[in-house]
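Could you please consider the sequence and fold following this short note?
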Amino acid sequence: MAEKSVFKFREASKNPELQKCLQHNGKQIEFYCKDHDIVCCSTCAVITHKKCDSIVPVEEAACGIKNSNVRDLTMDKLRKCQSSLRSVVAVLEANNRKLQTQTSNLRRKLVETRLKVNHLFDEFEKTLSSANDCMYEKESSRNTLQADRCRHLFTTVEGCVTILESAVMEGKEEGIFVILKQIDSQIRGFEKIIDQENSKISLVNLFFDEEIILENFLLQKNPEELIKIENIHEGTHDLEKF
């Protein structure tokens, strides 16, 4: 509303000899209300200021205005308004310049921060990869050693099979009987070892959770703790599924 009033006043002031009422377009300013210290048109005087005690014609109120200090006081007020507005504009422009500088600095710091984060993540990745490799070596070595033991036992069992087959094909019954009993006693040992190896089998998955990885990276936690081993099978039951 204030901006509209200023606009109307600016338009009306283009012709100082024909000042118009800001409230009633086209109406000539004719009166001055001393109670409200405001000039008005005849419509304003009748409607808005009908209860006011001191309404006089503009000609009467303006008598001697040229020789009074009212004009100077008003001009001083206007100049103070101008000064205040210049100060406001200066503060706003200075703030914009500061914001521009801060924005440039923030962009630069973001680039620097990204480089630091990239470096930190490179180191984090190295440690994580190393932990992953160590776990692989540990699990792979354990599996390889167990497989070697089983292969060695398999060779021993295979030798017994060969001996028994040869005895059946070429030997006498007494010899076959002795070999059967000897092999039978060894089979009990084989079965015991096989049961032990079977109980030691542990199939695992190596995995990590991406969200947990990111969270722990941001918190700078030890990456070696993030590689997990999940036991998915123990024993040789249903191994064909794997």
Remarks:
- The longest strand covers residues 228-234.
